[in-house]
From TrEMBL:
Record domain ABC transporter: where: 8-254
Main subcellular localisation: membrane
Family: Belongs to the ABC transporter superfamily.
Molecular function GO labels: ATP binding; ATP hydrolysis activity
Topology of this chain in the membrane: Peripheral membrane protein
Bilayer-spanning residue ranges: none
Lineage: superkingdom: Bacteria
Keywords attached to this entry: ATP-binding, Cell membrane, Membrane, Nucleotide-binding, Transport
Organism of this sequence: Pectobacterium araliae
Cellular localization per UniProt: Cell inner membrane
Database matches in SUPFAM superfamilies: P-loop containing nucleoside triphosphate hydrolases
Pfam families (alphabetical): ABC_tran
Protein name stated in the entry: ABC transporter ATP-binding protein
GO cellular component, one term: plasma membrane
Length: 265
């Protein structure tokens, strides 16, 4: 039996102020190389906290109370205790708001070159060329010229492509996406989702995609987990869950989106 690339068992998160009350309870799932998993649920359901726990990047005041996390068979969290910091090169992350994720004082090319150089040890010259290659890879036109732009000189869709390029600059095996298309228009959303899908398929990168938008998740993810009040209440193949939900809450999520947008999956 192959070892999962990512294995999460019995994850519990709590706040320091109220350690007896779980913010996230008993989350268990695994992910193999190249697999795609969507985590959906309403705001406050624990989706983003679960994602951030995988990199030990939880907000201040929130702790892992118990549970195990393994990356490539190696414990990073065991019984709630950090044993080994998650390898930064193993995981890339794409955030919801690219302006908060990018350094406003750094040109895009310099940012990508620095990330690549720090994580690979390549020379400055080679890393500069890699920055151009990364911009081309994520569909930025006139990539060499775009390396000179600051984040504020780019559109929202272009900035999100830069954030994706930055996540891929370290050659990760796992890509974590925290609502990366929420602030984008529908057309740009589709472009970004298809870009993530094609790039990760080419590189055999596993993806966890957090969203409240079921139609976006259905475009990208083979499997889906539904969260409510910090608990994982339903999971399975995406088409099976969306077409034949077993939980009342999942049906309500689906019905509410159909009411607003129609059936897009």
């Amino acid at each position: 039996m192959n070892t999962p690339l990512l294995d999460v068992r019995g994850l519990h998160l709590c706040s320091k102020q109220n350690p007896d009350s779980s913010l996230v309870s008993d989350i268990t799932f695994s992910l193999s190389a190249g697999a795609t998993l969507g985590i959906v649920g309403e705001s406050g359901s624990g989706k983003s906290l679960t994602l951030r726990a995988l990199t030990s990047a939880l907000p201040r005041g929130i702790n892992i109370a118990s549970g195990d996390i393994k990356i490539n068979g190696i414990h990073t969290i065991k019984n709630g205790r950090a044993l080994k910091k998650a390898e930064s090169r193993e995981i890339g992350m794409v955030f919801q708001n690219p302006m908060n994720a990018l350094n406003p004082l750094m040109r895009t090319g310099a940012l990508l070159a620095e990330i690549h150089r720090v994580n690979t040890g390549e020379s400055k010259a080679a890393s500069k060329e890699k920055a151009v290659e990364l911009l081309q890879m994520v569909g930025i036109s006139d990539a060499r010229r775009s390396c000179e732009f600051f984040p504020h000189q780019l559109s929202g869709g272009q900035r999100q492509r830069i954030v994706l390029a930055a996540a891929l600059a370290k050659n990760p095996r796992i890509l974590l996406c925290d609502e990366p298309t929420t602030a984008l228009d529908t057309f740009t959303q589709t472009q970004i989702v298809q870009l993530i899908k094609s790039l990760c398929r080419e590189r055999n990168i596993a993806v966890i995609f957090v969203s409240h938008d079921l139609s976006v998740v259905s475009q990208l993810c083979e499997r889906i987990c539904v969260m409510k009040d910090g608990e994982l209440i339903e999971s399975g193949q995406t088409k099976n869950v969306l077409n034949n939900p077993q939980q009342h809450y999942t049906r309500k999520l689906i019905d509410s989106q159909r009411l607003l947008e129609g059936d897009r999956w």
